[in-house]
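Lab meeting prep.
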Amino acid sequence: MKDRSVLRIYGGLSLLTGLFFLNFTSRVIFSPLLPVLEGEFHLDHAQSGSFFLLISAGYFISILSSGWISFRINHKKTILLSTVATGTVLCMLSFCSSLWLVRMGLLSLGLAAGLYLPSGLVSISRLVPPSYLARGMAVHELAPNFGFVAAPVLADMVLRYWTWRQGLMWFGLLMIGAGLLYAAIAAETNEPTTPPNFADMQEIVSRGKFWLITLFFSLAICSSIGIYAMLPLYLVSDQNLSAEQASRFLAYSRIAALMMPLVAGWLGDRFGHKAIMGMALLLAGFFTILLGLSATLPWVFTFVVLQPMVSVCFFPSGFAVLSAIGPDDRKGLAVSLCIPVAFLAGGGLLPVLIGSIGDFASIGVGFGVTGAAIMGGAALSFFVSFEKDARVPGEKGVANNG
């Protein structure tokens, strides 16, 4: 019986991690494609950065509404809806011939993809025992790290053998198939789901620490997704690489970060989540500044490798702390309130800011300004305490995730 329970946990985690991988890759695939899209549609850097603002805006709206949708159709069906709808939007984007249609498609992509995360995290929190929650989150966080590597590899293959439109079509069909597979093999859930209400929201948003967590998530998302989104343009415009070379460069740079969430999850359970969150932000901001200041490719490659290695370490502990905010039967609500704001700021607004600075100076200067902001947030994090977020003596180094 115990073996069955372990098998159920690992199987459920693997399935959700696979879906999260497809969900995440569907959004970041546009980063290595951005130099091609910029040339085809005659965009400047700020307009290119606005692509991620559109995805983030859809993501913002979708996550905020996900609680009502999961209440109506439960978490499993919400995950299914998100996966199939995201695949469908990618297929539709492959037929868009005008910039206006592409922009509407990117907004719709964010709307479809954003439904997954709250239901996925709640599913994990119910699947994994509390003392191993950070490690469960770390397994789930392998998905975006593999997505960071897979996106430029896929983009390189697409640009070499097909067009970007054909690539989006095939990826969309893959997502639709994965959603149908999930519907067929995932266990049916009958867990009680309570709809979010304004009293619950007010209880959470009235906490100052919730807004601090949101700030930290905004900076962490910028250090990971925001920098990644603009890195191909930096490599092409500032370092004079071709789009294909930038894609390969981007993929190689993320390989070293693949397993870091597992290390970070263990460290968070062992030493406490606040320390890991603060150190991850501090080092990510420092390496972002050095990346922007680098003048030669060897130094650029060094900091492109180091920066994501530390930035991804924030998320296992960050999600463990975030998922513990709010009433026990509404733990997904804090995620639904924090992540859309953080993603809109860190994954949408800050790439536009980096692009705008790039139009007037250089994207490297934009990286430097962003890195300084991340380090400022890291300094603030060391002065914040989270309830029950410390190792408890005598509990074998396992942190409470409250």
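Slide two material, second protein:
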Amino acid sequence: MKKKFKCEIDCAACAAKVEEAIKKVEGVADCQVNFMTQKFTLVADEEGYEDTLQRAIKAGKHVEADFEVEV
């Protein structure tokens, strides 16, 4: 399942660090954090998607405290 969310990220370097951290989260097949469009795309299995999403957001916030996602 692939979903896009509006997000807030401060710079392109921060977006790259957050994306790298989220890709390491169990259950995440792929993700993109786009600084220019302020969009976060998460690809994960439909089963357990919400749990994976919350863990991905937590991982992103661990790397960059200002990372916010509108769910």
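Talking points for slide two:
DSSP finds two helices and four strands in the chain.
The mean pLDDT is 97.
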